[in-house]
Specification:
- It contains seven helices and ten strands.
- By secondary structure, it is of the alpha+beta class.
- It is 34% helix and 23% strand.
- The strands form two sheets. Strands 1, 2, 3, 4 and 5 form a five-stranded mixed β-sheet that branches. The chain has a five-stranded mixed β-sheet with strand order 6-8-7-10-9, sandwiched between helices.
- The two termini are 28 Å apart.
Length: 246
Amino acid sequence: MTRTQQLLRERTAVRIRAARPDLADRHDLATPDGLLDAHRHIAQEAGAADDGQILAAVVVRDVDLARWVRDTCAFAFGVPPEDAAAWRASFTRTVFLAGNPDHLRDRFVFAHLADDGSAAWTAPGPAAGTTTLRRLLKLFDAPAEVPPAPARHLTVPGAPPPGRVPVTRGLHLATAGCTVAEALVHLNHVVAEAVLDGLIAPGDRLTLHRVPRINPLPGHAVRVRAVPDPRLPGRLRAAAALTDGD
């Protein structure tokens, strides 16, 4: 097993244990088969029709990834601790819907609205709370592949917490075979969970790297989004990662 595969499995196991200790008890996360079984279990839960599942919904009009990352941070900062714990237990599940937030503000309550109206977030909660919105709009479908691009620098919105010196981190997205819709999913998990865990705070500086592949995985990665590799059964690939430094 390569060092990258070992790191991906270790980081994935840590994420599962933190969010769902029950899954760690049910599956042997130290083995490839156990991790894949846990992934299947998580996917089955996400696909189940259960109004009690905890999720957030995002209405997306258009996408600029750097701008969207800033707004995702701003949204996650506003999630109360009690809601954050439940959302983490559902692996920060988020549903992306195609629509214009400006046309929906009078009918639905949003926890965060992008300044330019490009996206709006509902607070994490039981799926039943967003049923009407999800039935009204179609899933956000952006099948174009994300192209590699020069690094983009952005500052996380808000004033730094007292006593905390802003840090610089790299946010890496693997673009090969990744659609725009998939990019939102991958980045959402990494960014939202990093905010909830205090790894990203107001005033921090992020550098968004869009590269074909994140391989080898940087040793200074503090958060990794790993998914099964469709080309190589039994192996994982890094879809997104957050690193110390830029």
